[in-house]
Write a structure and sequence with these properties.
2 strands, alpha+beta, about 60 residues, membrane, transmembrane, 1 helix, about 15% strand, two-stranded antiparallel sheet
C-alpha cells in the first residue's frame, strides 16, 4: 500500500533545482508534532519496502 493509499497523509512530488522532493503540507493552526512524525515514519516504512523489493534494503541497526 502506498503512502497516499494509507489515508494517513497525502503527498506529491516536485522537482526543485533538478532534485526530486516530497511535498507534504499541513495547513492547520492546530498542527502538532505528531502530524509531522507519523507521516515521516510512514515514508520511511514504505521506502524500506521498496528498497527490499529492489534488493537494496538498508541494514537495520
Amino acid at each position: 500500500m502506498a503512502v497516499n493509499e494509507s489515508g494517513l497523509a497525502f503527498m506529491t512530488h516536485a522537482v526543485v533545482g533538478g532534485i526530486y522532493i516530497i511535498r507534504y503540507a499541513v495547513g492547520s493552526t492546530l498542527t502538532e508534532t505528531r502530524h509531522w512524525d507519523n507521516p515521516w515514519e510512514l515514508i520511511q516504512e514504505k521506502a524500506q519496502l521498496v528498497l527490499q523489493e529492489l534488493g537494496l534494503a538498508l541494514e537495520e541497526d
